[in-house]
Task: inverse folding
């Protein structure tokens, strides 16, 4: 599959989640809609995991362009928002699925398999309370706020995963989404994390 997101940390987290499944292979990554269109034509993936909101050519526009030339590719749209308008626009663009990044129980690998098998999935994972309204309080979902509180206590991804009954890779995705939402570009040093004083 081709993974498309303009935030490198988010892409890395999603890639880890997907590659945990031995049946799935990420053949490429794109950071813009323009790159996604070119790479989809070049690599011919079965599935494109597409970020909805990107600067320049957004996910909806890239989806239309890809499916114009390669209608056999299944596109799974990822979004921070659950507004009916966005879901409808994704369907009209040709997306096979629409999944919330802020879902409490995001199972991205399963969603990819389902669209690859020809299913159409909407709301494949359960959103947090703030996502139900299509809003993100100060850019963060309820689950991300939980993760952020534990990060501020100096806990590692693995420790947070145990506390919240999540996989470490899911926590890594939440951490990446938090950094993107808060416009944080650097992670704290290991020493500051251990002491609980760093991000």
Result:
């Amino acid at each position: 599959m081709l993974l498309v997101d303009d935030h490198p940390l988010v892409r890395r987290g999603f890639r880890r989640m997907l590659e945990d499944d031995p049946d799935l292979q990420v053949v490429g990554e794109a950071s813009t809609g323009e790159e996604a269109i070119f790479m989809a034509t070049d690599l011919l993936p079965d599935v494109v995991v597409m970020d909805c909101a990107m600067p320049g050519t957004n996910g909806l526009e890239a989806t239309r362009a890809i499916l114009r030339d390669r209608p056999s590719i299944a596109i799974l749209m990822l979004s921070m928002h659950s507004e009916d308008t966005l879901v409808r626009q994704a369907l009209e663009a040709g997306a096979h699925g629409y999944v919330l990044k802020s879902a409490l129980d995001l199972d991205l690998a399963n969603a990819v398999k389902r669209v690859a098998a020809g299913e159409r999935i909407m709301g494949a994972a359960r959103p947090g309370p703030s996502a139900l309204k299509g809003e993100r309080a100060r850019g963060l979902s309820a689950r991300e706020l939980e993760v952020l509180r534990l990060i501020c206590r100096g806990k590692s991804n693995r420790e947070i995963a145990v506390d919240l009954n999540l996989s470490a890779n899911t926590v890594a995705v939440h951490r990446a989404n938090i950094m993107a939402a808060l416009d944080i570009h650097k992670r704290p040093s290991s020493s500051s994390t251990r002491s609980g004083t760093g991000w």
